[in-house]
Structure formats: C-alpha cells, structure tokens
Specification:
CATH topology: D-Maltodextrin-Binding Protein, domain 2
Low-confidence stretches: none
Oligomer: single chain
Mean pLDDT: 90
Number of strands: 3
CATH architecture: 3-Layer(aba) Sandwich
Structural class: alpha/beta
Number of helices: 3
C-alpha cells in the first residue's frame, strides 16, 4: 500500500489508524471521497461498507468501483439513545 494514494474521511479515527504512515488525502464527506476515487485523485479509499455501497449505487453506478474482501477490520456500531426516548429500549 506504500505506493498508493489513500483516501479517508477527515476525523474517521479507524481509517486514520489503518493508514498511518501512508500517503493520505482526506475528504470532508463520503461523496467527496468517492469522487476523488472516480477522478483518480486517490487509488484506494478506506471507509465503511454500507454507506459507501448506497453512495455508489446512487451516484456512481457505472464507475467500476468494487470493495476488497475480506475487510481490513470489522468494527461494532453502537446505537445511543436520549433519555427522553428510553421507552424505545426493551
């Protein structure tokens, strides 16, 4: 990966940790990150799967973007709820 320009989201701790020491370019949002990939500004992007798949399907369906498997890491996602909505927790 040392010879590749890697795109990641600004402030995404997981991607910063995974790409530390590499030639990184940060994007402000997932759509911008994909545009950078499509237009050749980066070679690889590190991002979450679901949001990226939706973005590709909606905005870049014919761009030839594909995910590499297995993923570099799998991270749990937690839901947080405000105390005023505690009735939703069973």
């Amino acid at each position: 990966m040392a010879n590749y320009r890697i795109g990641s989201l600004r402030g995404a701790v997981f991607s910063d940790q995974l790409t530390e020491g590499f030639d990184r370019i940060h994007a402000a949002n997932p759509h911008q990150l994909l545009k950078m990939l499509v237009f050749g500004r980066v070679d690889v992007i590190v991002t979450n799967e679901i949001e990226t798949r939706v973005n590709i399907a909606k905005h870049f369906p014919d761009a030839g973007i594909s995910a590499l498997f297995p993923p570099l890491i799998e991270t749990p996602i937690y839901h947080y709820i405000h105390k005023s909505r505690f009735n939703l927790v069973k």
